[in-house]
């Protein structure tokens, strides 16, 4: 007989719960990857929109001197005229702001709504709607729409529906994974943000120069397809499986019963028992038809015919925990500090997300595709930073201190990044990786492990239904900063990119200050407390 292959032995070594946990991890990872994949194209297309218009203006000038053959080319290439003016940065910033402002406002409502609806259905509807609006933006190219109001309206609608994603996936992943090694697990899991940005940059960059409408349509179709996958496969909570298997066991092993008239004319149900040999023993009023085993004789009185099934009343030990209120979530220790810190940390991160390709295009003098490809290194650094922050905070048991150290190191890195035009290609690559690590590390840790910790805080007394609301409050507050960052970048960049980086360094410093109270509290503790599954019981 041939030996079992080692790969098969590895597969069967995992139990059913572990397989479902792995499925949930991978599925939620892919779901939120598609969210960020659909957000990234706007940053790649920005430089192409303005470059087309400005280059066409030059061509039109030449054409007016020479031949008139370029007039048709002018009309075809510059069909999105709101972005061909000198205030194009402000207009592009307004598009970013419309999306992010709607996202920030909607996030506060999304967590509250999400706790009261099935996560799977809520997330599915949000992903399908997000795919629709992302495709609509790309159809502006197909149908030659050059109305600024159209693009801003689509951005607002897309920002609102995309708020269904984050509270849903964080709640789901937290339901499956306890607090033991949560920083490491969620650091790995949160790399979906950077993976989505990278894939979004590559997909959008592939079509940006030839047909930028496809830069939106393809990601829109991807997130819509993932919404269908979510509907088919997402398991919200391990208890859902338990109820499914218990239902199957009940339907698969029916205990035979029969009815007789009982007291007051009511029908009473009687069990018909089976012994170890699976032989049924029926009892009538006159005699016992079959001999009973010794076990059955002990359980059943010999002078009775049937044993009536008594109604069972299930009494809950306590009432079902209700969804937490907005103010109740704010009273959880640490929620306000981490929320405000995330506001400024996310301001920095999202400014890079929306403006980095354009900055590289202008500072390093690269075309839109090369700038988009190079900007993915920032997200690669973000993956490393998120995992590193999770591992360190798990080891030390100090989430706030870990964030503060990375924020402190990020400030000089941002200053160095502002001089990117003076670097060669090699130092630029290294700076992108380091900057992505230090900027996205605290952002990743706060939005995942910290949110999950606070959503299952001991003051909630096991009420896990607060997780979605707490996550939405923290990320919603951070999204205010995400809306302000690109807007300020659009307003400050005409005066020079140095002003943008001074703004980013200031935001980074303020984020650090907001954590000082929590850092002091952690450092004054008597000893290091690693966050383990022993100290913090899984909810």
Q: Would you spell out the secondary-structure blueprint of this structure?
A:
Blueprint: H1 6-12, H2 16-39, H3 41-65, H4 71-77, H5 88-114, H6 119-142, H7 148-161, H8 165-176, H9 182-189, H10 192-207, H11 214-233, H12 238-252, E1 257-261, E2 267-271, H13 294-299, E3 307-308, H14 326-330, H15 335-364, H16 368-396, H17 399-417, H18 425-455, H19 467-492, H20 497-514, H21 516-523
Antiparallel strand pairs: 1-2, 2-3
Helix pairs in contact: 2-8, 2-10, 2-11, 3-4, 3-10, 3-15, 3-16, 5-7, 5-19, 6-7, 6-8, 6-11, 8-19, 9-16, 9-18, 10-11, 10-16, 15-16, 15-18, 15-19, 15-20, 16-17, 16-18, 17-18, 17-20, 18-19, 19-20
Characterization of the model:
- The protein is mostly helical.
- The chain is 69% helix and 2% strand.
- The protein contains 21 helices and 3 strands.
- It has helices spanning 6-12, 16-39, 41-65, 71-77, 88-114, 119-142, 148-161, 165-176, 182-189, 192-207, 214-233, 238-252, 294-299, 326-330, 335-364, 368-396, 399-417, 425-455, 467-492, 497-514, 516-523, and strands at 257-261, 267-271, 307-308.
- The chain has a 3-stranded antiparallel sheet with strand order 1-2-3, with no helix packed on it.
- Strand 1 and strand 2 (267-271) form a beta hairpin.
- Helix 8 crosses helix 19 (467-492).
- The longest helix is centred in the C-terminal third of the chain and has 31 residues, at 425-455.
């Amino acid at each position: 007989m041939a030996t079992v292959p080692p790969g098969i032995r590895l597969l069967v070594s995992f139990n059913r719960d572990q397989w479902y946990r792995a499925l949930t991890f991978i599925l939620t990872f892919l779901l939120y990857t598609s969210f960020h994949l659909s957000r990234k194209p706007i940053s790649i297309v920005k430089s192409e929109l303005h470059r087309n218009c400005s280059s066409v203006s030059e061509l039109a000038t030449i054409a007016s001197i020479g031949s008139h053959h370029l007039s048709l080319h002018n009309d075809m290439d510059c069909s999105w005229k709101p972005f061909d003016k000198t205030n194009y940065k402000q207009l592009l910033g307004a598009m970013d702001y419309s999306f992010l402002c709607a996202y920030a406002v909607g996030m506060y409502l999304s967590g509250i709504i999400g706790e009261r609806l099935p996560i799977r259905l809520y997330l599915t509807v949000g992903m399908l709607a997000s795919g629709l609006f992302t495709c609509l933006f790309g159809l502006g190219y197909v149908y030659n729409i050059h109305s600024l109001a159209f693009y801003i309206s689509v951005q607002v609608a897309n920002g609102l529906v995309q708020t269904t994603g984050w509270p849903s996936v964080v709640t789901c992943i937290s339901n499956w994974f306890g607090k033991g090694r949560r920083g490491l697990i969620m650091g790995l899991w949160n790399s979906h943000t950077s993976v989505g940005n990278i894939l979004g940059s590559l997909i959008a960059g592939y079509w940006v120069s030839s047909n930028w409408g496809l830069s939106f349509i393809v990601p829109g179709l991807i997130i819509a397809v993932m919404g269908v996958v979510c509907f088919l496969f997402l398991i919200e909570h391990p208890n859902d499986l338990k109820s499914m298997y218990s239902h199957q066991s009940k339907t698969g092993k029916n205990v035979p019963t029969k009815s007789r008239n009982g007291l007051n004319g009511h029908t009473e149900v009687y069990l018909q028992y089976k012994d170890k040999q699976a032989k049924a023993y029926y009892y009538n009023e006159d005699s016992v038809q079959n001999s009973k085993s010794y076990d059955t004789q002990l359980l059943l009185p010999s002078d009775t015919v049937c044993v009536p099934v008594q109604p069972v009343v299930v009494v809950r030990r306590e009432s079902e925990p209700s969804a937490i209120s907005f103010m109740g979530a704010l009273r959880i220790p640490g929620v306000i500090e981490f929320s405000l810190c995330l506001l400024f940390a996310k301001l920095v991160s999202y400014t890079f997300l929306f403006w980095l390709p354009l900055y590289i295009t202008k500072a390093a003098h690269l075309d839109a595709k090369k700038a988009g490809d190079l900007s993915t290194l920032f997200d690669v650094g973000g993956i490393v930073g998120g995992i590193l922050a999770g591992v360190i905070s798990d080891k030390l048991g100090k989430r706030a201190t870990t964030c503060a150290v990375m924020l402190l190191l990020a400030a000089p890195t941002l200053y160095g990044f502002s001089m990117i035009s003076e670097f060669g290609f090699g130092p630029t690559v290294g700076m992108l990786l380091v900057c992505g690590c230090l900027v996205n590390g605290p952002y990743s840790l706060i939005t995942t492990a910290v949110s999950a910790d606070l959503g299952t805080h001991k003051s909630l007394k096991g009420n896990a239904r607060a997780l979605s609301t707490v996550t939405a409050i923290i990320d919603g507050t951070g999204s205010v900063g995400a809306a302000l960052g690109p807007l300020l970048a659009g307003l400050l960049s005409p005066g020079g990119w140095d002003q943008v980086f001074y703004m980013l360094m200031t935001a980074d410093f303020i984020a650090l200050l907001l954590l000082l109270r929590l850092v002091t509290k952690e450092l004054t503790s008597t000893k290091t407390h690693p966050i383990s599954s022993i100290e913090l019981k899984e909810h």
